[in-house]
Amino acid sequence: MKFEIAAIHGCTKTAITTEAQNLMNKKLISLCTVTVLLLLLAPLSGASQERRDVDDRNYPEREEINKSYELAPGARVELSVISGSVDVETTGGSVAEVHIVRMGETRKDLDCYTIDIEDTPGSLIMRHKQERTGGCSNIRAKQQVTLRLPRNVDLKLNAISGPVRIGEIDGSLRLSGISGRVDVAQALGYSDISGISGVLSISVPRLSDRGMRVSGISGKVELKLASNLNANLTVSGINGDVNAEAPNITLSKVGNSEFSGRVGSGGSVISVSGISGKLTLRGE
Length: 284
Known about the structure:
- It is built from three helices and 22 strands.
- It is mostly beta strands.
- The protein has a domain at 49-226 and 269-283.
- An eleven-stranded mixed beta sheet has the order 1-18-22-16-14-12-10-4-8-5-2.
- Strand 19 and strand 20 (259-263) form a beta hairpin.
């Protein structure tokens, strides 16, 4: 099943003829604003792997962080303000392993910032912190982050400039302000994903009572839904094609850029809104 929505090129003003168009334009303006902010944050986004490898060689000053932390079930893990790739592997254990490569063009660039790590049994919070005095206001730096986490944590990633890959997460998942491709192997808890400038692909084997919210995506979105999943679907503000590619998914157009449907017999809500790109709902 395929639906086509007329594209609005760029972020220019468009004549508004209906209330639905007005809603879609507002969402697109917000999406364009998010995209511009992400581009300012991410001068390296969109580069090929070969280009990224070349870029990494431009940051010869390096230091590594290798640490392990014991986490309780349901612990909160947060990572924010990273310029570079983020890989999250998951296990059935209780130990979180943190591997971060800090890079700078010069030694001074490297000394101007740190990755601050705060840990308790119930939380692990990692943040980029940069000095703003003594010539540190404008630096050239990158990071490569690999986390090996217990599967039963609640994960939050914010302000990431680079590709993100996440393994199977049983807890909640919150992603925002990411400039780069995002791949999630599995999300079981509540998922709130917004402000992504790049392709988003996520597998959904089941949903919590709170469901899933995806909004403000500048790029293609692919939701891979389990054959035995039951969910209600609400889709709005889509600037691109909408495809439902599984027999257990029904989707009907109810407005200019709005759709309603369900997966299986219906259930928790999957809400998708403000997408500038193709939306594909496929079975798995």
